Amino acid sequence: MTYNDILLPGLVGSHPLEAMAAFGLLRVCNEIPDLAEARLHWIWDQDWRAVLRVPHAVGREELIEQLKEHYTIVIVTH
User: CB count, 10 Å around CB of 15?
Assistant: First the structure.
């Protein structure tokens, strides 16, 4: 399977709220069928930066669109 790593430079692992935001993003991705195999890891770049590994070579823009679509569906159905 092909994967794409998307650096999330605003989510720093050494900051507890930012780390929880990264974990939350992973949880949401796992609710979206096309992103269900997403994984999270960290790289060192002056601090620990979150990296989201997504399947099917999903890019940053497609990730954003899928998240927006998912939340539109969740908000409308609840």
Answer: 12
CB-CB contact of 25 with 31 (8 Å): no
Could you tell me how many helices (H) and strands (E) the chain has, helices first?
2, 3
Q: Is the dihedral of CA 10, 15, 21, 26 positive or negative?
A: positive
Q: What is the pLDDT of residue 77?
A: 67
Alpha carbons 64 and 42: distance in angstroms, whole number:
20
Average pLDDT over residues 25-45: 95
* pTM for the full predicted model: 0.86
**Sign of CA pseudo-dihedral 41, 44, 48, 54:** negative
